[in-house]
Q: What sequence folds into this?
């Protein structure tokens, strides 16, 4: 076991557990206002203090984790579900029109600045968590398609693929029986990294008001709302900021650790 | 005093003993061949001499290279010796060269690392080194890149880099294993000439007894980290007495006992087959160009026969194999198996494909690492309309594994638990499971150690006799083809230049290319009279 895998897994687990616990329990209600207790510094009653409506920041970060994780999971899911088959198809039919169409389509999506397009989508279809998910998901498709195509191209030259063709298996069957299982390591690693990028993108969209809408708590909007009060109540920005930082750091460490751990060659070298 | 003297060298890595009391010596101008199979410690010996041992390795004993005690020197001093006093040539020339630097620059760089000379002078010496390695500047300008050269030419660049500083000792680790037989002969001749001209000691490491038999003055035979026998060549072939040396000698020229059961009726007929590849388009306009890899090839394989197909890399034999297997459509001619085309109506013909299977060269790349052996072996069942299921499937897998000398328990293991020779057995089991008539062996024994190769050849001969199999034996290794085939074809540049009974082709080759190939094969000394 390597250190980055353990630290990454632990950090990620903390936020996932916080999000899950928030479904059944939070220290305070995040929807209820408590104006008398607004803008309190961290104390025994409110561990991380309260915001300008008197809501408990610790509770809001727990519920915000839920929003962030949900958006990122679905966005990565969209990317994998569409991107992986496209990449497999492009690799299986390399050099053909299909390959060209898929890969040039990917280039097209890659060529657009992703956050701008996400802003455009939410501007046209309205700001909501769902639209944020779709916008982030679309930009995950080419990431997975390219990754899978690249890895699959080299697998297609292996003798065991040739042996499967000699055994009469078709392109689709070989893709799913032989190619896909041998790219799962890559997918898991890339998935964790895209997951952290999804959390960052969600925070960014919420920051400009295009993500989850009030009153649903979101880390990005907590940062945005703290902006005007940062000079005299810095804890309003510091805690949601730390939450984003630690989650993304945790997921990146997890991705790195998984890559080393899943790669038998690297694993052997470490021993 | 010897140029290199290794005395009682012991190497262990993390407590595992790798080398045991290795003792050998190389004199100036002498060629010493070190032979052994994989795991014999021959490469580790070379690394120990250079002090390039992997992390965690402990070396004891004595390694003296022209007066330097290698085991006692600091890393800094060793760096000065490597390249300067001792040069090294590896197996794979492509990875030993930097693909984005010209050959002249690469050779010049090695000079400049060790000697404080001007760039101009380094280039001048690089030119000379390349010329000595038969790459004269008029034909191979220094501005060439590695990808513009053939495998043999690249290996010469690597040799030029190794000899540019006129080292006293050159270590060549399997320098010709990745090369074709004619290229191998040229590179070996070059190494021999350089050693003689410069009075340079040459330590030639190889798995091929015949290679060293031809050129070494002294032979060292290693097994499992120990020197089992050593002596002057060729006298050693008369006097060798260690059972392993004798077994190695026998396996190098192994002749499996084969039974004759050839029928006259052809099983496979290849008629005027043409195979074109589209080349990448040069520009946006203008039609795509084609490369003709197979130019109108015709031959028959009779039922029960073992037919050899020999040729060097790029001659079109792999392309032809794919066409026979029905993996790719041909542009002309026809391929009939048992009277039926392998490829009909733009699709491979399933009924025909059932009658043949293939065993590939690489025992490591031939299996999906995530599947268990049982599933791997059963994969060809996909070709059957009504494949066995449940218990019948299990039985078929077990029976196929037992035919190749493995056990039922092996079906539940993953492929990485098996050695190279066992993997080739599994590949044969996979080919046998649908009871084919024709098995195509595409360099199937080329990656194996000689003793394992002998076992696999025996297995193939035995299976052939028991099940009346027909073999198409594709190989670049002429000595193997000679021992296991009835008839053979010689292929050059997409055409079959000679065809005939194997004994005739080897004894009385008609075509110039065949003669060249046979002359290039390293020969073992004549068998000892019993």
A:
């Amino acid at each position: 076991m390597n250190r980055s895998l353990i630290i990454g897994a632990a950090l990620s687990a903390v936020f996932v557990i916080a999000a899950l616990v928030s479904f059944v329990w939070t220290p305070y209600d995040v929807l209820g206002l408590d104006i008398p207790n607004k803008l309190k510094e961290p104390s025994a009653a409110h561990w991380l203090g309260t915001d300008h409506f008197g809501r408990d920041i610790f509770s809001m970060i727990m519920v915000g984790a839920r929003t962030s994780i949900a958006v990122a999971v679905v966005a990565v899911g969209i990317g994998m579900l569409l991107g992986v088959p496209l990449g497999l198809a492009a690799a299986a039919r390399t050099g053909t029109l299909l390959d060209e169409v898929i890969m040039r389509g990917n280039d097209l999506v890659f060529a657009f600045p992703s956050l701008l397009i996400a802003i455009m989508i939410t501007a046209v279809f309205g700001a909501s968590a769902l639209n944020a998910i779709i916008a982030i998901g679309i930009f995950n498709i080419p990431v997975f398609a390219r990754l899978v195509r690249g890895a699959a191209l080299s697998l297609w030259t292996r003798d065991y693929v040739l042996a499967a063709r000699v055994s009469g298996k078709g392109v689709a069957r070989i893709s799913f029986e032989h190619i896909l299982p041998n790219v799962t390591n890559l997918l898991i690693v890339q998935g964790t990294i895209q997951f952290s990028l999804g959390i960052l993108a969600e925070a960014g969209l919420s920051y400009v008001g295009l993500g989850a809408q009030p009153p649903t708590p979101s880390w990005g909007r907590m940062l945005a709302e703290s902006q005007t009060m940062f000079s005299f109540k810095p804890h309003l920005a510091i805690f949601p900021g730390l939450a984003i930082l630690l989650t993304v750091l945790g997921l990146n460490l997890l991705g790195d650790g998984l890559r080393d751990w899943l790669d038998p060659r690297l694993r052997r070298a470490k021993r | 005093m010897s140029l290199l003297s290794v005395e009682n060298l012991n190497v262990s890595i993390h407590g595992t003993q790798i080398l045991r009391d290795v003792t050998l010596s190389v004199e100036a101008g002498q060629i010493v061949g070190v032979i052994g199979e994989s795991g014999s410690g021959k490469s580790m010996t070379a690394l120990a001499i250079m002090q390039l041992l992997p992390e965690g390795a402990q070396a004891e004993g004595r390694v003296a290279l022209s007066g330097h005690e290698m085991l006692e020197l600091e890393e800094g001093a060793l760096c000065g010796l490597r390249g300067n006093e001792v040069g090294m040539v590896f197996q794979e020339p492509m990875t030993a060269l930097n693909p984005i630097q010209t050959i002249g620059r690469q050779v010049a760089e090695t000079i400049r690392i060790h000697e404080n000379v001007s760039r101009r002078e380094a280039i001048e010496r690089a030119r000379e080194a390349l010329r000595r390695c038969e790459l004269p500047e008029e034909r191979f300008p220094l501005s060439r890149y590695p990808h513009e050269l053939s495998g043999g030419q690249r290996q010469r660049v690597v040799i030029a880099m190794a000899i540019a500083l006129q080292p006293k000792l050159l270590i060549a680790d399997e320098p010709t294993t990745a090369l074709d037989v004619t290229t191998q002969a040229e590179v070996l001749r070059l190494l021999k000439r350089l050693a003689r001209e410069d009075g340079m000691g040459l330590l030639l490491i190889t798995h091929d007894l015949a290679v060293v038999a031809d050129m070494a003055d002294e032979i060292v035979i290693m097994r499992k980290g120990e020197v089992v026998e050593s002596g002057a060549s060729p006298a050693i072939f008369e006097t060798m007495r260690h059972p392993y040396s004798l077994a190695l000698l026998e396996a190098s020229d192994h002749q499996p006992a084969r039974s004759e059961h050839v029928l006259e009726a052809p099983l496979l007929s290849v008629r005027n087959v043409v195979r074109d590849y589209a080349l990448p388009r040069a520009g946006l306009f203008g039609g795509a160009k084609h490369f003709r890899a197979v130019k109108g090839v015709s031959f028959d394989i009779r039922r029960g026969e073992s037919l050899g197909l020999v040729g060097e890399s790029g001659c079109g034999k792999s392309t032809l194999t794919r066409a026979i297997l029905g993996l790719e459509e041909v542009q002309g001619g026809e391929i009939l198996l048992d009277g039926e085309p392998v490829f009909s109506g733009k699709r491979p013909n399933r009924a025909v494909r059932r009658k043949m299977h293939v065993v590939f060269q690489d025992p490591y790349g031939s299996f999906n690492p995530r599947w268990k052996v049982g599933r791997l072996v059963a994969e060809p069942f996909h070709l059957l309309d009504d494949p066995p299921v449940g218990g019948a499937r299990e039985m078929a897998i077990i029976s196929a594994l037992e035919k190749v000398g493995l056990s039922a328990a092996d079906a539940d293991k993953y492929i990485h638990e098996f050695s190279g020779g066992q993997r080739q057995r599994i590949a044969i089991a996979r080919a046998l499971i649908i009871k084919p008539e024709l098995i195509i062996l595409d360099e199937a024994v080329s990656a194996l150690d000689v003793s394992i190769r002998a076992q696999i050849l025996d297995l193939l001969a035995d299976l052939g006799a028991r099940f009346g199999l027909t073999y198409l034996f594709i190989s670049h290794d002429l000595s193997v083809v000679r021992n296991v085939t009835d008839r053979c074809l010689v292929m050059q540049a997409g055409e079959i230049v000679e065809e005939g009974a194997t004994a005739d082709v080897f004894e009385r080759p008609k075509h110039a290319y065949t003669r060249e190939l046979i002359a290039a094969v390293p020969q073992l000394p004549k068998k000892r009279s019993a």
In short: The CA atoms of residues 398 and 408 of chain B lie 5 Å apart. The radius of gyration of chain B is 25 Å. The first strand of chain B starts at residue 4 and ends at 13.
